[in-house]
Amino acid sequence: MKVSVDKELCVGHGRCYDVAPELFEDDEEGYAVVRGDGSVPPGQADAARLAVRLCPERAVTLTE
Amino acid sequence: MSGQATPPADNKVLRFEELPMAESRTAAYKIVREAGPVARDDHGAYVITTSEGAEYVLRQPGLFSSKRAFDGVGSPVPMVPIGTDPPEHTRYRRLLQPMFSPRSTAPWQPRIRTLAGELIDNVIAKGECDLVADLAVPLPAQVFLTLFGLPLEDRDRLLAWKDAILDTVGIRGAEAPSEESARLGAELFGYLVSHIAQRRQDGGTEDMLGQLLADTSDDALNDEEMLGLSFQFVLAGLDTVTCALSTAFATLASRPGLRRQIVADPSLIPNAIEELLRVDGPVATLPRVVTEDVELGGQTIPAGNYVQVAVAVANRDPAEHPDPDTIDFKRQERHLAFGGGPHGCLGSHLARMEMRVALEEWHRRIPEYELAPGTAPRATWPAGLVGIDSLPLAFPAGGGGDPAAGSAQ
């Protein structure tokens, strides 16, 4: 399971790194980047789904 | 304007000015939603009322122009960046984004917390206050002054200019500026010009303005652009937070069940803010101008026409939000209270922080409060933003809470 952020769509709302800080972080400008290679560790699946659901730009995707 | 369609003659036309916004946004937004996914208003604008439609428009700045929609808001210089389109907008945004990022705004939280605490402490002994005049209005103004290195004593002057300018901007936010608004705009500009010039001399990078002025890259803002930004901060960053705080506190004061949830568990506050913004955010509609004929919701919108993106209505779209009119602080759904697409609110992190700090500082000092007897909160309408002008609250003198509780956060 992996998360990714579409750089073209992200405008820096920051919902993903607010609700799933173990999976996402903010860069210097406030845009979202995935931590590491985006792999979702055990116990973080719900946080990953929440980040997908909250992104106003639909820029966060989760692949199984 | 070429290609401007005349309003349709049937009785399905939305009259925003006549919506029952003052009493009930739930009732008002129901009327708008029921007019259809792409409705028409009495100015001839096409009103987008669904979440899907709103997202579609906001993400296509080439087709739906902000520059043309914000021409003439009484600003003597370009509205940077709200009234620009890509690629011009992209450059401004790249410059400003770091200034308003969480990394830049988070260090201001202790200072903003102190400002909020002082404002609440000013009224706590009385056992009554006007939440709007005593907290919702002064807090964002003081935050602006602090971030721009301006003296807090200038607060009331700043507010007077801002009010006078905004009073002349119509509900649609895009009417020709009056002589009065141009004069007041010039006064505010004079104030900002002299401050920026002073700061160029004095240097110092301890605040946001100083950091912008210290940028010597090729992309750095020139003085005119710096003014545009300052002007926009004053017009876009003050009343929005004031209005959001006014409606949030009105809901909490009217609904003890909701209020008690956040008193019992202050960690709910950030999510409660999202929900309060979803159901009753300050922005009802966002204007755009169509640049070429476009097909939307089964109709063709001719180039040159206004589109009003009804984000507040989209935020209650049942397709995206089950049981949309019910306020649920545990709800976790995307919303468009901060807009979306390339123009998505630049100040959202700062606005969220101001609201969070205000709610946290208030509720640990004053956990029990209610609407002052005999009062009922009414939103001001018609208006450019959705907010309440006066919100008298009653609470135990001294507040009754424990101001020290949770102060370490």
List the helices and strands and how they pair.
The complex is a heterodimer of chains A (64) and B (409).
Chain A: E1 2-5, H1 15-19, E2 24-26, E3 32-34, H2 45-54, E4 60-63
Antiparallel strand pairs in A: 1-4, 2-3
Chain B: H1 25-34, E1 38-40, E2 46-48, H2 51-58, E3 64-65, H3 67-70, H4 88-96, H5 102-105, H6 109-124, E4 128-130, H7 131-136, H8 138-147, H9 155-167, H10 179-202, H11 208-214, H12 223-237, H13 239-254, H14 256-264, H15 269-280, E5 286-290, E6 294-296, E7 299-301, E8 306-309, H16 311-314, H17 348-365, E9 370-371, E10 392-394
Parallel strand pairs in B: 2-8
Antiparallel strand pairs in B: 1-2, 3-5, 4-10, 5-8, 6-7, 9-10
Helix pairs in contact in B: 6-8, 6-17, 8-9, 9-10, 10-12, 13-14, 13-15, 13-17
Structural domain tally of chain B: 1
Tell me how many strands of chain B there are: 10
Order of helices and strands of chain A: EHEEHE
> What order do the strands of the largest sheet of chain B run in, or round the barrel if closed?
1-2-8-5-3
* Annotated CATH topology of chain A: Alpha-Beta Plaits
**DSSP summary: helix tally of chain B:** 17
What is the CATH class of chain B?
Mainly Alpha
Give the CA-based shape of chain B: globular
Q: Which value, in Å, is the CA radius of gyration of chain A? A: 10 Å
Supply the CATH architecture of chain A.
2-Layer Sandwich
What is the total number of structural domains of chain A?
1
Largest sheet of chain A: 2 strands, antiparallel
Question: Termini separation of chain B (Å)?
Answer: 54 Å
